[in-house]
Design a protein that fits this description.
The structure is a homotetramer. In chain A, helix 2 (about 20-45) packs across helix 5 (about 65-85), helix 6 (about 95-115) packs parallel to helix 11 and helix 6 runs antiparallel to helix 13 (about 200-220). The termini of chain A are far apart. The first copy, chain A, has about 220 residues and is mostly helical. The relative contact order of chain A is 0.10. The first copy, chain A, has 13 helices and no strands. Chains in contact: A-B, A-C, B-D, C-D. The structure holds a DNA duplex (21 and 21 nucleotides).
DNA sequence: AATGAATGAGTTTTCATTCAT
DNA sequence: TATGAATGAAAACTCATTCAT
């Protein structure tokens, strides 16, 4: 009533929040990624996501339906991103040993640089992967690494530089584990070992160790 | 059902719990462990903890001060328990290789049997280890495994069955990682690889792989 | 399901509805009738009305101004319809007793077949008839039944088959009441009397009773 | 934190809202009755109920679980009240005709004086009697009037003052209908007939008519 | 005429915590 | 030690309405 004629002098591009659906929903997705990575799904606040995206809270529901589906969209986006990066490793171009070093190094570096991915994956595990299960996209996004590992192992075996003890899936899990665990648990490990696991020196040492360990295990 | 919430009108003498402080606070601790493991710190509900312990909600505050301190008490108890179990491994009794197998197997089995420990540790990491930092006890509970690994490595080196590539802390982290990651991420991995990582067959295969991998890496 | 809410990206030329104002506003009116009858004015959702009409929500405001005026339009339409039906009873054609039976029967049958009319009238009463008061149309739509009752009563009195105890307005109210109450309260009555008031057998018995009661009361 | 020591100088009896569970839950029930009668179940606001009762909103949930159960409690209380009042009619004490007049008069007067009962019953009918169905109490509260009507009819039949045309249940429904409809629809009727149905003169005339109609219909 | 984007105020419900006894 | 009553702040989600095109 009394606000019918409120004078709002901001230009439309600012007032109406750009009226650019793509930009708006992307802004929400970005904000949601930060929020959920920091606070988890349950701890994440729709209000804060909207505020950080600079849009009205209702738009979360307009674009994504509800908090769960927003979370799912975030998960899909981070999985899509890591899969894209994995595609870019052309391990076939290198000698088996070099290829394997590159792969382990990539795995380590990606997790070092993407703590949000780790946070989201951990959270999704606590939630029994219910958003992942609901996602048709992610289920279809098989990691190309398993195949690349398989081929690299085969090449290394033929070249006499690798043994044949380890299956590609388990080896993939181990490579992921050696890096993931370190970054995922850096806070408690720092307390328990009374040393800063986040220092670049420690990280560099860990990187070295992980690559060494895998290479040592693969030796014939 | 319909009247669950109605305040009950039984006299205090009937309602009153055991009035056994030790039992009461232990019941709260047990309930809190389940609750926080299942829902995390933020998702954990004081009401449910009190209800499951069968005591009044206020007693949580009476015995533990607040939700944070209760959580800290839970953390302390689970760390104390794993440290106690670790003490029971007498690795010095066995040959280096057997000792190392036993150690890796123990680490795997303990995590397989204690999913609540994993859940709590993950949650505490999300919370930047703030409860752990506040705990004087846990900080003092260094894992005895590091020393045992160190000694075992040394014995193995002397016996010519191990190499000297890996420091005890990093090796400890790797052993933990190979098991922890598998159980911690079993839900998302099951979806992504479209196979049930919780089946006893998969677990047995993983256990075998982890031990093999470590032993292979340690070979001279 | 999962992507229901996502804004659709079809070009306007495809999305665009009929662009037939009459059809569009009639579709809205029909949808609003169902919605308000089922959920009441406050419970009725503009979104659902637009969705069910298959048109954009904004058109509600374009054609009707706001929710209140839409509701008023619905009320006007249902009152118009019942008045039209009442006009079609030509009670003067029949003997007084037969005319009265026909009238009571019509009243019963109309309410039996138009539960939405009952729902709307009840709702409007809760709202203190504010939409009806705002309607110039409905105020002018006097029921022709009162006059027809008056004339039938007079003919019956002259013919010696009716008494002169009851005024036409009160008799009209009573005839309406005997049927309206039954259908309006069928849900609670079914629970309280533990019998299904909506079964055709019960309805038939009630119809018989209502006619009998009125005829008995009118006997000289 | 900063509010730990807020000085609150009101006496406990005022501040702590009396800490009298019976009084508190009764205050909530009274407030809920008014609120739901005025706005219906969906339109009724938990906030307003708590405010009017002068208690914290959460106590609604503490005492009643949720809005639905609070509504059910209100329904149970109004049905209990009317059943109690009905019990107090000792129709056996009077001659059949006098007894029937008294009964019809009571029914009329009760509804005249309890518009909230009418509002709640109408609302519950819109909701398909779902709260009533959920109530074990109300289902068991059969109106004693049906039996009293049956006995009065029988006595009147024997005394030669009543006919035997009408069954007790249908007659009960008709008696209720003649009064209920008038009060339930007073707002729309006032507009349509352009006369104030709520004036005491109109009400008195209606009362007279209802009794007359029933008595006329019962005449042999 | 018609659309989808955007908004602000509000709605039920939840929760950790404190109070009074 | 133990209880149930009570609180204030916030959470997800909804809704009638308006804006920009």
């Amino acid at each position: 009533m009394s606000t019918d004629h409120r004078p709002d002098l901001k230009p439309a591009s600012v007032r109406g929040r750009s009226r650019d659906p793509v930009a708006t929903s992307q802004a929400l997705l970005d904000a949601a990624l930060s929020e959920f990575a920091e606070h988890g799904f349950e701890g994440g606040r729709v209000d804060r996501i909207a505020a950080q995206a600079g849009v009205n809270k209702q738009l979360v529901y307009h674009y994504f339906g509800n908090k769960d589906e927003l979370y799912r969209a975030v998960l899909e986006s981070v999985y899509r991103q890591i899969r894209e990066r994995e595609q870019e490793l052309h391990l076939g171009d290198a000698e088996p040993e070099e290829a394997m070093r590159r792969l382990v190094g990539f795995s380590f570096d990606y997790l070092a640089e993407n703590p949000q991915f780790i946070a989201l994956v951990n959270d999704e595990n606590r939630l029994a992967a219910r958003h992942l299960k609901a996602s048709e996209q992610v289920a279809a996004m098989h990691s190309p690494l398993v195949q690349q590992i398989e081929q690299t192992l085969l090449r290394g075996l033929k070249a006499g530089v690798f043994n044949d003890r380890f299956g590609p899936v388990n080896l993939y899990l181990s490579i992921a584990a050696l890096s993931f665990f370190y970054f995922s648990n850096k806070n408690t490990l720092s307390v328990i070992f009374d040393r800063d696991m986040t220092s670049s020196a420690q990280i560099a040492r860990r990187r070295q160790h992980v690559i060494e360990l895998v290479m040592a295990a693969l030796r014939p």
